[in-house]
């Protein structure tokens, strides 16, 4: 797209009350807009990143048999009373509202209850299982404080998958598949080498749950990392028993600040018992369904990438989730403009996501904007580069500047 | 996808409290699930339809220069007090909630206010205009009654585009472009010949707004249609002056029940005045921005198609928005199953959306399910069709059954 048409512009400063680095950078670069503390809108550049993250997650969820659906935000009090999670003394992040007849509704902070209720209408027999369903849906959480930018917000898109299995064995096989899919996701979005599968508290149905924790000082969690085994333990559960279970020694672990970018959780029969989600097995015996939940927040991934991969000049996107793959900068006009327009059209025809800075603005400002926005590859066309029939190429994550003949550029990057 | 894996199943009956035909059919066929009156979840089949409708709308919005973003549901009281629309006595569809510090938030029923506020941070000069932004975002409306199925709900996805223009002339040019884009959308989703551009009340900045009204007895509106001119007038504004303006005579008009599937509206400077959204023109003079709003509800389109294109056997989807293009039915097993599996794999490889009914179930039940679900083309493979090396083809919107040799079927439908 032509940058002259993009309605957002970069800014020198973020709002004064914005203390999180990720949000400061994303606001300055025009990716997000702060509406209220902990509530952010996604502007065109930010929405492009979100959609790419969503696409990566969706592909992985489909590959393990997930069926996509979309539940509602407005929640029926009855359903949540069934599981005992309606009361604000049990769940302290509810936003609640009312119909005109004064009956109370909740805004979903998660979806175990409505989904278990829904699935119970379709599952009768062992033939109807297993079922794996997921959604990208907005969650609302009434957080007391919101100071981590888009990494912890009061309204956010979440991918939540829920598994419904016939027995513990079928559950564990899927749980491991989901774990692998999560590893793939964090590798693809560029957080793989900083993200650890972390043993955390499991609740009443399994000893542990598994969190995916990315090392960053901006995180709110503390974990103990074992680099050799590529795993970690959440500080909340660290004790002798856990160390024994995992064959680890305290002295081999390093304490780190981290952010939870995903989690997978065995729910056992907690919700299937509450909603009488049972099935008849091959012998006609009634059995409860075994459930698991698997969560990931696309915006938290975006915020975490903004925290850990940025530098003093701005954002640094991996190509997989960048708003555009190429930032094409025109310096000057006349012949340079003709040639740059030409390259832009060819990139579009090759289906390459390109942001074309065709604005009438000084070179220094264009370079600064480009660094702040953080598109992986910068291509400059100017009278000077054209003297050698070339363009200048620089990758955002490198300081090297390369001069490449246009013919070679076309051969290499155009289809 | 294999229907044996689809977790939803068809049902004989919809919930007793569901009185709208569209929701009855969509629930029975497994497209939506009713959570509360006026609040519906979208199941895998329904979400596929929604996504196709969203895709059609997005393509048209991009083609007229729309930039996609995503605003929030949670709304800041301050912003709405600025325009005078916070008070429940002014807007009677608010859902409101509270932060823990007891400050009130609203759930967006529309987004003029936050978007005007946002755009005012980026627009300074005539060079920054025009701006056309749109989103697919969930709206919440506290409707007193909800009895039209998914055609009028308390929580729904809406595409809303807002235009910001330098002057009335620039506004009108875009307004006409948007009108044409809407015509394209309704043609593409299969409602074109039942949908009329309808003159409706315009508010203080323009004499008329334009609604897109689709003829159906399930609608809540009344319009007067002029078939010759292919336009209509909303009953609410019908008077001598309007007839004169449009050069119509009352006796040439036919009164019809209809549903408003889209609307476009000139907002003038109502919101730009409230939010001081001004720009400096070429001579440095400060001028207010002229706005327009352009709304469409994808779920209402889906509900309207379910109302007007269905028959006594079930849903009838146009190919453009059908959950799948082909419903492949296997009758029998053995050789038929081998051949049907083979055709299924080939359809997948050709990137054709196919639902494969591979379930162990009687032919009559499969045919009834297929009619209820309403996929445009049904392809049956059985021992009988294989005796002539053929498949049986039937289109959902026709009674004709055609026998086609497999070789011809492959030539015609596989890439």
Protein traits:
homodimer; about 425 residues; alpha+beta; BirA Bifunctional Protein, domain 2; Rossmann fold; 12 helices; 21 strands; about 30% helix
Structure description:
The structure is a homodimer of 415-residue chains. Chain A is α+β, with helices and mostly antiparallel strands. Chain A contains twelve helices and 21 strands. The first copy, chain A, has helices at residues 21-28, 44-63, 77-83, 112-119, 168-188, 240-246, 270-274, 298-308, 335-349, 363-373, 383-387, 406-413; strands at residues 32-36, 39-42, 67-68, 74-76, 95-98, 104-107, 131-140, 155-165, 195-201, 208-215, 221-226, 231-234, 254-268, 278-280, 286-288, 290-296, 326-330, 354-357, 377-381, 390-395, 401-405. In chain A, strands 9-10-13-11-12 form a five-stranded mixed barrel. A five-stranded mixed sheet of chain A has the order 18-17-19-20-21, with helices on both faces. Chain A has a three-stranded antiparallel sheet with strand order 4-6-5. In chain A, helix 1 (21-28) packs across helix 8 (298-308) and helix 2 crosses helix 8. At the A-B interface, strand 1, strand 2, helix 2, strand 3 and strand 4 of A face strand 1, strand 2, helix 2, strand 3 and strand 4 of B.
């Amino acid at each position: 797209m032509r940058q002259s048409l993009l309605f957002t512009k970069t800014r020198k400063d973020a709002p004064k009350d914005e203390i999180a680095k990720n949000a400061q950078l994303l606001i300055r670069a025009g990716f997000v807009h702060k509406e209220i503390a902990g509530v952010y809108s996604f502007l065109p550049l930010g929405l492009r990143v979100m959609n790419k993250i969503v696409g990566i997650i969706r592909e992985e969820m489909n590959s393990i048999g997930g069926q996509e659906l979309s539940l509602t935000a407005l929640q029926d009090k009855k359903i949540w009373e069934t599981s005992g999670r309606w009361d604000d003394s049990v769940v302290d992040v509810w936003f609640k509202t009312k119909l005109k007849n004064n009956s109370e509704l909740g805004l979903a902070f998660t979806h175990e209850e409505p989904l278990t209720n829904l699935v119970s209408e379709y599952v009768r027999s062992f033939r109807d299982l297993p079922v794996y369903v997921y959604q990208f849906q907005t969650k609302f959480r009434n957080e007391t404080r919101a100071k981590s930018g888009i990494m912890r917000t009061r309204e956010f898109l979440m991918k939540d998958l829920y598994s419904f299995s016939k027995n513990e064995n079928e559950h564990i096989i899927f749980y491991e598949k989901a774990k692998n899919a999560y590893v793939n996701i964090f590798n693809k979005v560029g957080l793989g080498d900083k993200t650890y599968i972390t043993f955390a508290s499991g609740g009443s149905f399994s000893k542990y749950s598994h969190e995916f924790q990315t090392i960053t000082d901006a995180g709110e969690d503390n974990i103990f990392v074992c680099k050799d085994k590529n795993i970690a333990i959440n500080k909340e559960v660290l004790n002798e028993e856990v160390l024994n279970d995992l064959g680890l020694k305290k002295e081999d672990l390093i304490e780190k600040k981290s952010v939870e970018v995903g989690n997978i959780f065995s729910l056992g029969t907690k919700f299937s018992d509450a909603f009488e989600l049972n099935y008849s097995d091959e012998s006609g015996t009634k059995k409860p369904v075994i459930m698991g939940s698997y969560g990931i927040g696309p915006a938290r991934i975006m915020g975490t990438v903004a925290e850990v991969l940025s530098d003093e000049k701005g954002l640094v996107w991996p190509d997989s989730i960048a708003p555009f793959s190429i930032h094409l900068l025109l310096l000057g006009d006349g012949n340079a403009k003709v040639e740059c327009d030409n390259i832009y059209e060819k990139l579009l025809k090759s289906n390459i996501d390109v942001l074309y800075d065709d604005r009438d603005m000084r070179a220094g400002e264009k370079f600064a904007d480009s660094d702040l926005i953080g598109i992986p590859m910068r291509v400059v066309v100017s009278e000077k580069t054209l003297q050698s029939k070339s363009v200048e190429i620089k990758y955002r994550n490198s300081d090297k500047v390369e001069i490449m003949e246009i013919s070679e550029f076309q051969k290499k990057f155009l289809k």
